């Protein structure tokens, strides 16, 4: 499987997935930590990939997403954005709505 | 030309901006003094009207992506239309505290 296939598999089989530096328990970047905090507040489970330990995903996803930085939040196979967008949506309540909806219907992203 | 000037020039050349703010936040991070590695960009432009947030950021990244992750490690983007900017009262959220990531990141060898 090439890296694009791996990415597609990850973003479609996980309704909510965060590509981040470090892990939710030990984020290694303030921006990733903030994203984890926002998602944790919502309280639904989410998948993550530590891109510091996955160099191929790290460079491949930048191209795939047209997005050069991390974290990246993907919901139902779509790029939602990086930490600034995550925080804006967290503050406005949109993040909770989107995550809760994705969690209700986890198969939807695979169509 | 400084990195900051490069960033500003590229944005101004690409779109009409009603307001542009570029703050060097490098001193809040784990990098040498006087670095140009971490920036916060506020761009207020009609060009963003009708564009979802993710596309606005992608448009900025298309202009500046070649500067990342070297020399620019992080770029916070706030992209608003003039109406949205006014509705917000011209304010953005504060940046998070650094967690030292640049120190043990192979891509950012110092």
What this model shows, in words?
The complex is a heterodimer of chains A (111) and B (110). Chain A is an alpha+beta fold and 111 residues long. Chain A has one domain: Glutaredoxin, CATH 3.40.30. Chain A is 50% helix and 15% strand. Chain A has helices at residues 3-13, 30-42, 55-65, 83-92, 94-104; strands at 16-20, 47-50, 72-75, 78-81. In chain A, strands 2-1-3-4 form a 4-stranded mixed beta sheet. In chain A, strand 1 (16-20), helix 2 and strand 2 form a beta-alpha-beta unit. In chain A, helix 1 (3-13) crosses helix 3 (55-65), helix 2 (30-42) runs parallel beside helix 4 (83-92) and helix 2 (30-42) packs across helix 5 (94-104). The longest helix of chain A is centred in the N-terminal third of the chain and has 13 residues, at 30-42. Chain B is an alpha+beta fold and 110 residues long. Chain B has 3 helices and 3 strands, in the order αββαβα. Chain B has helices spanning 3-14, 53-64, 82-87, and strands at residues 19-24, 38-44, 74-80. The longest helix of chain B has 12 residues, at 3-14. The radius of gyration of chain B is 14 Å and the shape is globular. Classes of the chains: A alpha+beta (111), B alpha+beta (110). Chains A and B meet through helix 2, strand 4 and helix 4 of A and helix 2 and strand 3 of B.
Entry keywords:
heterodimer; A: 111 residues; alpha+beta; Glutaredoxin; four-stranded mixed β-sheet; 5 helices; 50% helix; globular; B: 110 residues; three-stranded mixed β-sheet; 3 helices; 3 strands; 27% helix
Q: Helix tally of chain B?
A: 3
Structural shape of chain A: globular
How many helix segments of chain A? 5
Largest interface: A-B, 27 and 26 residues
- Uncertain stretches of chain A: none
Q: Total strand count of chain A, please?
A: 4
How many β-strand runs of chain B?
Answer: 3
Name given to the CATH architecture of chain A: 3-Layer(aba) Sandwich
Distance between the termini of chain A: 20 Å
**What Rg of chain B, in angstroms, do the CA atoms define?**
14 Å
Please tell me the overall pLDDT of chain B: 89
Rg estimate of chain A, integer Å: 13 Å
Integer average pLDDT of chain A: 93
CATH top-level class of chain A: Alpha Beta
């Amino acid at each position: 499987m090439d890296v694009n296939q791996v990415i597609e598999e990850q973003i479609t089989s996980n309704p909510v997935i965060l590509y981040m530096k470090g892990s939710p328990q030990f984020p290694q970047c303030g921006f990733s930590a903030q994203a984890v905090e926002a998602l944790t507040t919502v309280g639904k489970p989410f998948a993550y990939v530590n891109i510091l330990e996955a160099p191929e995903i790290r460079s491949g996803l930048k191209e795939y997403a047209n997005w050069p930085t991390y974290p990246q939040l993907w919901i139902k196979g779509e790029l939602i954005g990086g930490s600034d967008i995550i925080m804006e949506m967290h503050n406005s309540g949109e993040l909770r709505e989107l995550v809760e909806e994705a969690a209700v219907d986890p198969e939807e992203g695979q169509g | 030309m400084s990195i900051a000037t490069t960033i500003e020039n590229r944005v101004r050349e690409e779109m009409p901006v009603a307001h542009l703010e570029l703050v060097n936040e490098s001193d809040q991070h784990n990098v040498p003094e006087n670095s140009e590695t971490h920036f916060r960009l506020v761009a207020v432009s009609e060009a963003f009207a009708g564009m979802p947030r993710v596309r606005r950021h992608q448009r900025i990244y298309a202009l500046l992506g070649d500067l990342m992750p070297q020399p620019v490690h992080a770029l916070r983007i706030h992209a608003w239309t003039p109406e949205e900017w006014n509705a917000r009262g011209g304010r953005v959220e504060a940046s998070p505290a650094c967690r030292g990531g640049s120190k043990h990141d192979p891509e950012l060898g110092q």
